[in-house]
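Could you help me review a protein record that somebody else here produced? What it holds is a sequence and that sequence's fold in token form. I need someone to confirm that the token line plausibly describes how this chain folds. Take the sequence as given and treat only the tokens as open to question. This is what I was given:
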Amino acid sequence: MSTTVIELTDMRKTYRTGDVEVHAVNGVSLRIERGEFVAIMGSSGSGKSTLMNMLGCLDQPTAGSYLLDGVDVAKLGRAELSRLRNQKLGFVFQSFNLLARTTACENVELPLFYTNPHVPLRERRQRAINALEMVGLGARLYNHPNQLSGGQQQRVAIARALVNNPELLLADEPTGNLDTRTSIEVMGLFQALNDTGITVVMVTHELDIAAYCKRTIVMRDGKIIRDEANTTRTFASDQRAALDASEQHADLA
């Protein structure tokens, strides 16, 4: 089995506004191997969100090729593409996107309604419970979103992304709505999931969040301008300890 999960070759996305062409993604070639943890950075308009949408098969390139786990995405019909997304990809968004009137467990079950073949009710429930326990929410299975903190809601969203055992986890600004401590906890969870072998690709505009990843890709004007390993990587366990020590010192002062 190939170790390459994502392979982009001369990927382009062009939008036309009147007589003006906007090259949102402009000739990107990229390989991401199984088990990597990659941050994609860039200012507004750099193309990082457009690239992420194409990686998630939510948008189609104007030109170029995209192999997802060896499958040429451009050759798939709508139903096949939907099946590929459901089976291979997990999505985590900044805004959580949880249904307000359903429990944590029911929110996590949602992707299983769209699997083919059909997943029986008892198996759906057990897989949702397993995913929530994986992210440390085994005691919150039947809480509604308004009964959960922001960090807990993001953990539900991560559990929902994991329930189909995806090859690739795509996270778009997953700490954007979270405070410092909660951001550390969520990044620690991503690191732990990555340690189990899950490939993680994350869009962020925050340097301190990108530092948790193994590799950072920086985009500008639709192009990759930097792609390098994080040699001084941040670990959530160290950050939690430092934050605890700082708070304890402040309490004693």
Residues 129 and 182 are 22 Å apart (CA to CA). The domain at 36-56+79-247 is CATH 3.40.50.300 (Rossmann fold). The helical segments are 48-55, 78-88, 104-109, 121-134, 150-162, 180-195, 207-210, 236-252. The first helix runs from residue 48 to 55.
